[in-house]
């Protein structure tokens, strides 16, 4: 992906160092964050320097490889990485795969981590190819959170079809939900879309009913952090609300995710662990003043409690289709199982 004409990857590994686009500084500054150890990479995942299901999967794989390179206890390291963020399946998938490869040799662990990051990129590209025909010329797409190339290495999941459609000459307009409390839509999706030259508007998280009732949305596409065997899909908090609205107003609602996001050990979404994050994310916001100086300010009533579940689960019945690297499927047990044969 190009930023100011130069190629960058959201997550990259070179000579034992993990290089991350620092998503906490975007869109106000573009900086590369370096992680020199497994512990550094864990911290970056936890504090969301790197975030988004696929990107943290790639980073987690590299963190596991760093543990093997440093001769850390791999079992303890794997536990530490898994404890960083509980919901995204890709993180666990990558740790397990690199851990197994590391039983052969350190080189095998590094190769496997690199292979997974590349596979992530290829899957995201193929999601774009399969999803692109859903977007007609002139389409208006609503998306939630950031499932672009910052969140899923190099193409994105939900935004990959949008990028393909735009690059192919179609007119596309994207409504990006702000996605409180961390504002991944307002900060990251908007930055990506601007970077790609795609027309868009940031909208408040509670604008969905207004937009759909006015016929302003042709389809909704979001990413997913974990999908159960029956198609129930966890994604950023607020996604389920959009799915309910989409069904009410007859708007197609798609989830875009690679096979590495499916958790076939879970028969439905009830078993998905929902991460609870700090109340500070609700109580404080960070950004520049009019002079460009960054501040963190309180935006809620001091003394009030705040509750911050980071994800919700959209039941399969609300999902029109899941766009994967193998095609678009109905969220049904048999269809999902067939993807893995
Ligand atoms: O908490 P985050 O920002 O890591 O949220 C995860 C997500 O990026 C979204 O839920 C996204 O839609 C999943 S796919 C990149």
Write up what this structure looks like.
- By secondary structure, the protein is α/β, with parallel strands linked by helices.
- The chain has two domains: 2-125, translation initiation factor eif-2b, domain 1 (Four Helix Bundle (Hemerythrin (Met), subunit A)), CATH 1.20.120.420; 134-339, Translation initiation factor eif-2b, domain 2 (Rossmann fold, 3-Layer(aba) Sandwich).
- It contains eleven helices and 18 strands.
- It has helices spanning 38-46, 53-69, 74-82, 89-102, 106-131, 160-167, 184-196, 208-213, 239-249, 280-283, 333-339; strands at 2-3, 6-7, 11-14, 17-21, 32-35, 139-143, 172-177, 199-203, 219-222, 226-228, 233-236, 253-256, 262-263, 284-288, 294-298, 311-314, 321-324, 327-329.
- A seven-stranded mixed β-sheet has the order 8-7-6-9-12-17-18. The chain has a four-stranded mixed β-sheet with strand order 13-10-11-16, with helices on one face. A three-stranded antiparallel β-sheet has the order 3-4-5.
- A hairpin with a 2-residue loop joins strand 17 and strand 18.
- Helix 2 (53-69) runs antiparallel to helix 3 (74-82) and helix 5 crosses helix 6.
- The longest helix is centred in the middle third of the chain and has 26 residues, at 106-131.
- The chain binds 5-S-methyl-1-O-phosphono-5-thio-D-ribulose.
- 5-S-methyl-1-O-phosphono-5-thio-D-ribulose (MRU) binds at residues 51-54, 145-147, 151-152, 157, 184, 222-225, 235-236, 310.
